[in-house]
Amino acid sequence: MNVIIIEDEKPAARRLNRMLADLNITVHTMLHSVQESIEWFSNNEHPDLIFLDIQLSDGLSFEIFDVVTIKSSIIFTTAYDEYALKAFKLNSIDYLLKPIDDEELDIAVKKYQEQLPKMQQLQVDFEDIKKLLINPMDRTYKKRFTAKVGQHLKIFSVEDIECFYSENKGTYLHTTDNRNYLIDTTLESLEEELNPQQFFRVSRKFYININAIKDIISYTNSRLQIKLNHFNEQEVIVARERVKDFKMWLE
């Protein structure tokens, strides 16, 4: 399989290269800008698969497709907010949210290998996606969640939710009155439903409300431990690969 990476942050490109090597995938070329990519595609055989960062140092990577017709399959790598992810899903495009997780990368590669004929036939409307990225639509996020308690449904405002977490294959919300409720969703589904200014996914297991943070403590292996106002049933740890984005989110 012929694979290339287009990523303007060279440390991120090298990290992705190492992660793919661990999956026995050899990256033949790493490109770092729109212009460099246009020149390369104009003079080289196109690869089977491209790992493509959206925002490059000299513009959006979609500008490459304005000049060169690329028939390769693409897996986007992006730090963009949820409105962009919705655009990818609507166009059946695979993506990896930065910082890239090893397990999610493995899943994306296997999905590509299993659906190769279908992906090669996919016609992507880059213009529609570019419009969403440059002029994103006003997004509305969920303001309430419901949980079944016995024969009743309880309604919770997002302002009254300290965190969402997964446990034993279930997803729970924890309220400001220090109670847990099982809800019928997944943390992955919450990516499109929660306001990213208010909630942040600190790990594969936790989404936390910025208004519920009581303390932030340095933790082992360059991670952070979060103390919430009421939730104390288990440790809330910011995954090492999410620490940088978490600190930016706090600001």
TrEMBL record:
Tell me if Cytoplasm is a UniProt keyword of this record: no
Q: Which residues carry this modification: 4-aspartylphosphate?
A: D53
Q: Where is the HTH LytTR-type domain?
A: 145-251
| Record-annotated Response regulatory domain positions | 2-113
Any keyword Ion transport? no
One Pfam family name is Response_reg
Which keywords, in A-to-Z order, does the entry hold? DNA-binding, Phosphoprotein
Extract one GO molecular function annotation from the record: DNA binding
SUPFAM superfamilies from the entry? CheY-like
Top-level taxon of the source organism: Bacteria
The identity of this protein, by name, is: LytTR family DNA-binding domain-containing protein
**Species annotation:** Aquimarina gracilis
